Amino acid sequence: MTTALILNGSGKPRGSNSGAFAAYLAKRMIDRGLETETVAVPWAIRKTPSAETLLEAAAKADILALVTPLYVDSLPAAVTRLLEWLAERRATSPGAQRQRLVAVLNCGYPESAHNRTAIAICRQFAVETGIEWVGGIGIGGGEAVAGRPIEKLGRLTRSVCRALDMTADALAEDRPVPDEAIAAAEKPIVPPAIYRTVAWMNWKHRAKEHGAQDRLDARPFDPSDQTDPSD
Fold first, then answer.
1. Closest CA to 3 of 32, 45, 41, 42
2. Are residue 89 and residue 201 in the same domain, yes or no?
3. pTM of the model
């Protein structure tokens, strides 16, 4: 039986978007006959026993599915550390088994294009380690998901579900992730204009909660801004 290890790169112990996407992908992979295990990377690498267990599981898996949030324009530090460890293991293991890598990146920005640099990093990791790269998809507008099960969000995540369905199909059939899946994932969950409007309203609401509603234009590190923050 083909085995898949889903690597959740989120630093949140629960309620993360990466966790929601990983859970959906795991279900679809299981439906297609794959033996699937999901590991929370930041927590697993903190202690030697769990880190070693993770590395051993990763070495044995036929498929590595990295599902992770975007940090600025790259991967979280814990995910980068894991990839470094995996690269070291493969470098010292001649004749390592064939493995496939797929990446599912998600970001809070409404435009999914922000994920492309991190996806390229994952692809380069695969090239340098001899792992077969089968594709990466990028999802934008993650704030609208808010860690909820994506299969229950109806039209909001319909395109994302379709993208992950096609990804699971491709992995089960030993094919690269199709362009249709990549394109479906890149469709905005919420129209960017609406997303920015709601985000700005939320930003002002949070500022008011902290008494900072009159300081949203402050530039404390700009030498030309001499405003005394205590005023």
1. 32
2. no
3. 0.87
